[in-house]
Amino acid sequence: MVKVVTDSCSDITPQLAQELGITVVPLYVQFGNETYRDNVDLSTEEFYQKLKTSKIHPTTATASPAQFAQIFAQLAEETKKILAITLSEKFSAIYATALQGKAMVKKDCRIEIIDSQGGAGAQMLLVISAAKMAQSGANLEQIAEWLRKAIPRVHIRMTFDTLEYLRRGGRVDKAQAFLGGLLKVNPVLGIKDGAAFPIARCRDRAQAIDFLVDFVKGFGRVEAMAIEEATTPEELELLAQRLKDVVPAERTYRSKVSPVVGTHVGPHVLAVAVLEAEQK
Questions:
Q1: Cα four-point dihedral sign 47, 39, 113, 136
Q2: Range of 145's domain?
Q3: Tens of pLDDT along 132-141?
Q4: Of 92, 117, 151, which residue constitutes the final position of a domain?
Q5: Are residues 103 and 157 in the same domain?
Q6: Residue 109 and residue 18 share a domain
Q7: Would you say 194 and 117 are in contact if contact means Cβ atoms under 8 Å apart?
Q8: Rounded Cα gap, residues 208 and 178, in angstroms
Q9: In terms of domains, do 143 and 10 share one?
Q10: 197 to 24, 40, 120, 142, 182: CA distances (angstroms)
Q11: Are 89 and 127 part of one and the same domain?
């Protein structure tokens, strides 16, 4: 059976990873001289508490090629086919390091690396679908072909209450120009072709949530949906309730935005991603 690998920016929950046989490679969060493996040494809850109270703004780092090589070699003991789905290469070097790790593996095993061209819930939906296909007996070629065709059908919108965290991480650029500086608005960003881009300026949180709901309702048919929060579970529940008649619970995945992603978007992020149904 094909073994599926992803990085921690996919926000796959440990329970789902175990259930679907997904191997998650953690990225790193650094507070000064303290380094933590994403959601391993530091839980999501602990991270956001530290983010709000620490005088040091964290930085992030990718996994090394050697780490990928070690994971690929271990999985090669169980299978001859491995598929890795990474965070967009425009956000991180993780795609490049996965390729470097692949080149270091000496075992007889085919390894396919695919750039999700997204992250968080968008990446999550692709990984879940790939893992389910693998469990159903699809081969590596079939899954890889499906992924490449599915990537343009995955859409994500994220809202948060400040651009400050994006500014600190150097990821504001076009978004800041669009929003006119660090105004007291709730910006909405999306990801397209692997890069973030500004969508809307909402005057308050309620309007931002309305925007996310309308975004999902704007699709004719949705194969699956991922909804995420960081420190506002009550908002996630509200979002779930408002969308339960659009996407059924069995095709809705709930998660928390990982520390690495949270470093750049802050503790009040709320996100929704959809896998748009293929047109017949």
A1: negative
A2: 3-151
A3: 999 999 999 9
A4: 151
A5: no
A6: yes
A7: yes
A8: 16
A9: yes
A10: 27, 30, 15, 31, 16
A11: yes
Tens digits of residue pLDDT in 165-218: 766 655 555 555 455 454 567 889 998 888 888 888 888 999 999 999 999 999
Are residues 125 and 188 located together in one domain of the fold? no
> Is 209:270 a contact under the CB 8 Å cutoff?
yes
3-state class of 258 per DSSP? coil
Query: Do 92 and 193 share a structural domain?
Result: no
Helix (H, G, I), strand (E, B) or coil at 210: helix
Q: Which of 129, 120, 115, 124 is nearest to 159 (CA)?
A: 120
Q: Where are the alpha helices (DSSP H) in 136-280?
A: 140-150, 164-168, 173-179, 205-217, 233-243, 259-265
Q: Which of 106, 131, 151 is the last residue of a domain?
A: 151
The DSSP code sequence of 158-193 is EE-S-SHHHHHTT--HHHHHHHTSS-SSEEEEEEET
Number of domains in the chain: 2
Percent of the chain whose pLDDT exceeds 70: 92
DSSP string, 52-102: HH-SSPPEEEPPPHHHHHHHHHHHTTT-SEEEEEES-TTT-SHHHHHHHHH
Residues 185 and 106 in one domain: no
Which 8-state DSSP code applies to residue 43? -
Q: Is the pLDDT of residue 117 over 50?
A: yes
161 token code pair: 């209450």
